[in-house]
Design goal:
Blueprint lengths: L8 E4 L6 H31 L6 H26 L8 E2 H34 L4 H4 L2 H26 L8 E4 L6 H5 L7 H32 L3 H29 L8 H25 L2 H8 L14
Parallel strand pairs: 1-3
Antiparallel strand pairs: 1-2
Length: about 300
């Protein structure tokens, strides 16, 4: 029965009602969030202040770090504010805004990983033409296309979902953010068309970029003939592959599974991975496994202030 006596608002299901566990979760999530902010900010800073890192690869890496910061900031502060005390309602417009920005930054993240794979393909398979192909204009155009496409897809999906009616004035979302699958479950109408659109968008954002990444690495593998070359190539690509498998794997399990076979607990687990783990691992993987970034960090105290041009 459709019974709505006022503006629709949502509340998030609490993680736990035990005060000791609430404090522990709050401190743990806050620590992760601060580490994400510090680590990704450090990558942006080191890329902007060291001329040796002013290349397309690090230009995209710094933008990936910026997206990771925005991505987690859309979710974590609100989640932290809801750990303690009574459930705090979020209005319909607030939930829609969180979903829109979450999908936008998440989509941009996936597209950027695909662009970074293409960059590695050009660098390894066409090293002599790398600077001619990966020009400053092309990099900026690819970044702009990434942001534009992510904005367009997330706006269409969010607008479509929030045209649905909801069955009561206050709805409890069985999640810690306004994500698409848990909000769809609260709709008081047929959602078959909306689920179909969700699958189409998920294929465009997840499957297509992942296939492009796979094709890039197939070409990279075919282009490598010597053992030494193989070692060098995969040392530059292994960190990227780690991020790809974590990001696309968890997102695919959350968005591309049939809704009938998914559970709220599993959705929570997958969302925690791509909300906390991958943004946290991003700076660790790209610094600990990258000698250029490590060298730049070690020399950071000796670097003076220089004018910034993202790509040489």
């Amino acid at each position: 029965v459709f019974n709505q006596s006022g503006p629709t608002e949502f509340v998030f299901r609490v993680f736990t009602t035990v005060p000791e566990f609430q404090v522990l979760l709050f401190l743990l999530f806050l620590l992760f969030y601060l580490m994400i902010l510090c680590g990704n900010t450090a990558i942006i800073w080191v890329v902007c202040t060291h001329s040796v890192l002013r290349t397309p690869m690090y230009f995209f890496l710094s933008n990936l770090s910026f997206v990771e910061i925005c991505y987690t900031t859309v979710v974590v502060p609100l989640m932290l504010s809801n750990i303690f005390g009574a459930q705090k309602p979020i209005p319909l417009a607030g939930c829609g805004a969180q979903m829109f920005f979450f999908l936008t930054f998440g989509g941009a993240n996936c597209f950027l990983l695909a662009i970074m794979a293409y960059d590695r393909y050009v660098a390894i398979c066409h090293p002599l033409h790398y600077t001619l192909i990966m020009t400053c204009n092309l990099c900026v155009q690819m970044l702009g296309g990434t942001v534009g496409l992510a904005l367009f897809l997330s706006l269409q999906l969010t607008a479509l979902i929030f045209t649905l009616p909801f069955c009561s004035h206050r709805q409890e979302i069985n999640h810690f953010l306004c994500d698409v699958p848990p909000v769809l479950r609260l709709a008081c109408a047929a959602i078959r068309v909306h689920q179909a659109v969700l699958y189409v968008v998920s294929i465009l954002v997840l499957t297509v970029p992942f296939l492009l990444i796979c094709v890039s690495y197939v070409f990279i593998t075919c282009a490598i003939r010597s053992t030494e070359g193989c070692r060098w190539a995969f040392s530059t690509c292994s960190s990227h592959l780690t991020m790809v498998l974590l990001q696309y794997g968890c997102c695919a399990l959350a968005y591309l599974r049939p809704q009938s076979s998914s559970s709220a607990d599993e959705d929570h687990q997958f969302a925690l991975v791509y909300t906390f783990i991958t943004p946290l691992l991003n700076p660790l993987i790209y610094t600990l496994r990258n000698k250029d970034v490590k060298g730049a960090l070690e020399k950071s105290r000796n670097c003076g202030s220089r004018s910034y041009c993202p790509i040489r």
